[in-house]
From TrEMBL:
<keyword id="KW-0732">Signal</keyword>
<dbReference type="Pfam" id="PF05901">
    <property type="entry name" value="Excalibur"/>
</dbReference>
<protein>
    <submittedName>
        <fullName>Excalibur calcium-binding domain-containing protein</fullName>
    </submittedName>
</protein>
<feature type="domain" description="Excalibur calcium-binding">
    <location>
        <begin position="33"/>
        <end position="88"/>
    </location>
</feature>
<feature type="signal peptide">
    <location>
        <begin position="1"/>
        <end position="30"/>
    </location>
</feature>
<feature type="region of interest" description="Disordered">
    <location>
        <begin position="71"/>
        <end position="90"/>
    </location>
</feature>
<feature type="compositionally biased region" description="Basic and acidic residues">
    <location>
        <begin position="77"/>
        <end position="90"/>
    </location>
</feature>
<dbReference type="InterPro" id="IPR008613">
    <property type="entry name" value="Excalibur_Ca-bd_domain"/>
</dbReference>
Amino acid sequence: MSGSRKMVLGFVAAASMVVAPLLVAAPASAATDYANCTELRADYPHGVGEPGAVDSTSSTPVTNFTVDQALYDANSESDRDGDGIACEKH
């Protein structure tokens, strides 16, 4: 094997050791489980719901809640009326 070919292979090997760690997917961050609606509303003022959720109310329904399935799942215990929206607020 010629010297230049060895040099090229050396560069390729070195580059793969630098680039390979960058290609590893980062672990998915866990959705925050808030202690109560006051804490959740500090970050999501109108609550958080799952896709397709509709606020069950006798007045004007909340439509501007944050849609995020993982976040809703982590806080579903705060969905007191079971409509798929936790801590909804007008």
